[in-house]
Design goal:
The chain is mostly helical and 189 residues long. Helix content is 67%, strand content 0%.
Length: 189
Amino acid sequence: MADRKAKKLLYTRQEMFELNKKLLLKRGVTLESIAEISFKQQAKYTENITRELCLESVEKILSLRDVFHHVQLACEIDRLAEEGLFQGPIQDIIYEDLGLFGIDETMGLAVAGLYGTIGQTNFGDIDVNKHGIVKRLNDAGKEDGICHTFLDDIVGAIAAAASTRVAQVTNEELAHEETGIKRLSIFDI
């Protein structure tokens, strides 16, 4: 077996965040648009949350290794489907976003599941009701030449995880206030 040229396989959290941010932007998704979904979802349950906290949560989630792999794979699958590079029936199933397919939702559940069953429940709400950028991605995915089968679910899952993280951070801060101990940073959680 010939020696394989060394390839970069591991990235720092900052590199993963930057690569995810760049790829999402290339696919038409801003971090602010994801944070807006998180804000609207969590504002129903938590008083005094800010869009800044939601954006910080989105950024934190995009720096996680599992999420990095999901975002990169989801966007690549959609790109390959747009270019017609899959063979057999799977090409049309992915490209047309067949409702019975479900693998895209499975990936979304995995990302949202990083924040437990509440994260998955939040993802279900976003997936069914299609808020904000998720709706725009889903609708655009029905246009000729565009595939967002995986992207809309991954974006929804990131928003769901961020929403759940906001609730966790807020409750952690409340618990610390009760004990008189203050956390140093939102990223400690």
